[in-house]
Amino acid sequence: MSEHAKPVAVIILNWNGEKFLKEYLPSVVSHTNREIADVIVTDNGSTDNSVAILKEEFPEVKLIEFNENYGFAEGYNRAIALIADSYKYTVLLNSDVKVDNDWLTPLYRFMEEHPDAGAAQPKIKSLLEPDKFEYAGACGGFLDCNGFPYCRGRIFDTVETDNGQYDTPAKVTWASGAALMVVNEVYLQAGGLDKQFFAHMEEIDLCWRILLAGKEIWAVPQSHVYHLGGGSLPASNPRKTYLNFRNNLLMLHKNLPNRTRRKTLVRRRLLDTIAWAKFILSGDSENAAAIFKAHRDFAKMRGAYKSHPKVDLLHGNTNILLDYYLRARHTYRSLKN
User: Quick one: CA torsion of 262, 199, 69, 119, rounded to 10 degrees?
Assistant: First the structure.
């Protein structure tokens, strides 16, 4: 990084998102501390008026233009590779995130004060219900013994109201890709986001690899943002079901050691079969078919991942299914009681 460069790049990935740019980019421009950060929009070959709008209405925003749509993971990988020599940190910020106050400075200071941190996220609240946490990330994520994700502030469909109960910074297992701050060197050494995932859980997979490399993941609630979320695919969409089930299997296969990987995947097959049966019994054949397709495609794709770690980061973790459905523990705080 050059002597006079700013330490942080806030990168928003855009593809045909002129509506989101007009609605949410002004808050990012207004409330990002320009002494420490540049706001950069990376355009993934948009065919709408995104680039013209950026050039005409947001001249202070730096622009990276790609001539094709590389998708979420590869788009960020290419953008960070281009700017990594100029910035120490990058914030991967979704285009449907609104910010206020000086949202970035607490994250930046925390990372500077914690050199073992490889990634961090702010508190993520719902844009539509600002008193509640946002589903995908809330106040930092964890994985249970079967690889199911949950958060401080959200377990399955139970989303908590933010009453300051998670306002202490905490080490977590994964940080949300909606507002993910990474050390660029760590990001690149970990291999970046896995483009084979296409969408969903790619940030959890990345954070797992960052942890395996000996770095820490943190939630820093002194910073907060508001995320619209669910804009691309609603929770009940079979495409989302497919990606979540397939990518969770890929993530387990990649990041578990030989001695426990097979047993965990067999257990997941049984649990996923129960989920499949539930969809069948409820008459939802499309989501049932999505689970079947996810397992079929996982079987085709897993051969591409030939190296596995020696450490099992899921060992000793809670079983969130038992906690939630049998023990009626519906909040993160209740898991600790």
Answer: -90
> What span, in angstroms and rounded, lies between the C-alpha atoms of 270 and 272?
5
- Nearest alpha-carbon partner for 94 in 176, 7, 209: 176
Token readout for 335 is 């898991």
The H or E element spanning position 266 is: helix 258-281
The residue among 25, 135, 39, 48 whose CA lies nearest residue 87 is: 39
CA 94, CA 210: separation in Å to the nearest integer?
21
Report CA dihedral (316, 317, 322, 328) to the nearest 10 degrees.
130
**Which region holds residue 153: left if phi is over 0, alpha if psi is between -120 and 50, else beta?**
left
Residue 183: which residues within 8 A CB-CB, separation 6 or more? 88, 89, 111, 117, 118, 119, 215
The one-digit pLDDT tens for each residue of the chain (337 residues) are 344 589 999 999 999 999 999 999 999 999 999 999 999 999 999 999 999 999 999 999 999 999 999 989 999 999 999 999 999 999 999 999 999 999 999 999 999 999 999 999 999 999 999 999 999 899 999 999 999 999 999 999 999 999 999 999 999 999 999 999 999 999 999 999 999 998 889 999 999 999 999 999 999 999 999 999 865 556 679 999 999 999 999 999 999 999 999 999 999 999 999 999 999 999 999 999 999 999 999 999 999 999 999 999 999 999 999 999 999 999 999 997 6
Those residues with Cβ within 8 angstroms of residue 301's Cβ, 6 or more apart along the chain or in another chain: 196, 246, 250
Closest CA to 227 of 271, 177, 288: 177
Tokens of 35: 């002494």
Please state, as a whole number, how many other Cβ atoms lie within 10 Å of the Cβ of residue 303. Answer: 8
